[in-house]
Write a structure and sequence with these properties.
CATH architecture of the largest domain: Alpha-Beta Barrel
Strand content: 25-35%
Shape: elongated
CATH class of the largest domain: Alpha Beta
CATH topology of the largest domain: TIM Barrel
Distance between the termini: 20 Å
Bound molecules: pyridoxal-5'-phosphate
CATH superfamily of the largest domain: Alanine racemase
Length: 400
């Protein structure tokens, strides 16, 4: 990974102070450019939402708003409130996720939220009762757990037994019950296959499946129309530095062909993207505090571990990593160094699970250098074990 010059310069300035360096640096330029690009290339009817679970920092919400994202995909009341503070209105929010509480549903209805995505029949009844109490009708999408999974994806959201949505096979039994709930306005389907997908055809296959389901529903239930279809998120990024991210242009072309094939022009299609938009707008930067040789393997200990950057350990993958060499004087003559070898990176936590990088080959690392983990803008601090060992929170510094 090449560290952008302005990121390195900023880190060097910070490192000139006495304080131990441990922070996230954000530059949302790339996120804003990607939103503009997607809005330009996607077929008519596609609306790009930012899935704020990837990074709820206000700078990312502001980037989404200023670059022209249609709105925010939220999955909790906390996210809803942050989106509102960032300037989004209720009708720019779509609400997904299993286990929405009555308070959360009530908030959604009272704020005129655009769509609430129903994850089960219980949730449908709960929402219907709330709407009835409030004298309101709510637009909903029905989330389906399709009988399809993308094996190579980092995380799958459909296929097999899942907590997400209603199993595809149960649709014929459940849909009539849902359509009978008088305070819910059925608008269409939500089928999200997987996250971190690099193969465009895998996600297009999901689109085709959903189109097939929508067509079948309309045949089986005359008068019912799926005018909105949500494909979820899933566009992947190149964590392994193999030279290719997900290809949005190929996806746009494929989706456009499917829309024509199914005669689905004039409908609305949601994309709720997190990782693809946010990942390359953030770097986790942490100072090397110690290097040890343990039975022939070097263990590099950094100021922050999975309390601040849990994703590599949680998903057992290495993020791109580069070292800023600081040239600090050794504390004693035989202090360990890394020199052309594969090493392990961890943090200061008292658990063997505290791994930042596994068996990663590096030319040189010394105590006092700064380890910079790339693609950390998505699912970085937000999915970390912040409270564990009560270390100070890393700073989040926004450069642009
Ligand atoms: C419902 C929903 N939408 C969107 C996303 C964002 O997915 P991604 O970051 O892969 O784009 C997620 C991620 O878990 C999700 O659960």
């Amino acid at each position: 990974m090449n560290i952008p010059l302005h990121i390195e310069q900023h880190l060097r300035q910070m490192a000139a102070t006495e304080a131990t360096l441990n922070c996230y640096l954000y530059d949302t330029t790339s996120m804003r450019e990607k939103i503009v690009y997607l809005n330009n290339i996607m077929p008519a009817g596609v609306e790009v939402f930012y899935a704020m679970k990837a990074n709820p920092h206000p700078a990312f919400l502001l980037a989404a708003r200023s670059a022209g994202a249609k709105g925010i995909e939220i999955a909790s009341l906390g996210e809803a409130e942050k989106a509102v503070v960032a300037g989004f209105n209720g009708d720019q929010l779509i609400y997904t996720g299993p286990g929405k509480s009555p308070e959360e549903l009530r908030w959604g209805v009272s704020h005129g939220i655009r769509t609430i995505h129903i994850e089960s029949l219980t949730e449908a009844h709960r929402l219907n009762a709330i709407c009835s109490d409030m004298g309101r009708k709510q637009d909903i999408l029905l989330r389906i757990n399709a009988d399809f999974d993308i094996h190579e994806a980092q995380t799958t959201f459909s296929g097999g037994s899942k907590k997400f949505g209603i199993d595809e096979e149960k649709l014929a039994e459940i849909l009539p019950q849902l359509l009978a709930l008088g305070h819910l306005r059925f608008r269409g389907l939500h089928v999200y296959a997987a996250s971190g997908v690099l193969n465009v055809n895998d996600l297009l296959k999901n689109c085709e499946l959903v189109f097939g389901m929508a067509r079948q529903i309309e045949l089986d239930h005359p008068g019912t129309r799926c005018d909105t279809i949500d494909f979820g998120g899933g566009f992947g990024v190149d964590y392994l530095e193999e030279g290719h991210d997900f290809d949005p242009q190929a996806y746009a072309d494929g989706l456009s062909a499917l829309i024509t094939q199914y005669g689905f022009g004039g409908r609305t299609f949601f994309l709720e993207l997190g990782r693809y938009l946010a990942a390359d707008s953030g770097w986790f930067c942490t100072e090397v505090l110690d290097i040890k040789d343990s039975r022939g393997k070097k263990q590099v200990i950094c100021a922050g571990g999975i309390n601040h950057f849990r994703r590599p350990a949680a998903l057992a993958i290495n993020h791109p990593l580069a070292i800023i060499r600081m040239g600090r004087k050794a504390l004693f003559p035989t202090q360990e160094q890394v020199c052309d070898e594969a090493v392990y990176f961890g943090g200061p936590l008292c658990t063997g699970a505290d791994k930042l990088a596994n068996n990663v080959f590096l030319h040189a690392v010394d105590v006092g250098d700064i380890a910079v983990f790339g693609l950390a803008g998505a699912y970085g601090l937000t999915m970390s074990n912040l409270e564990f060992l009560s270390h100070e929170r890393p700073q989040e510094i926004v450069l642009s």
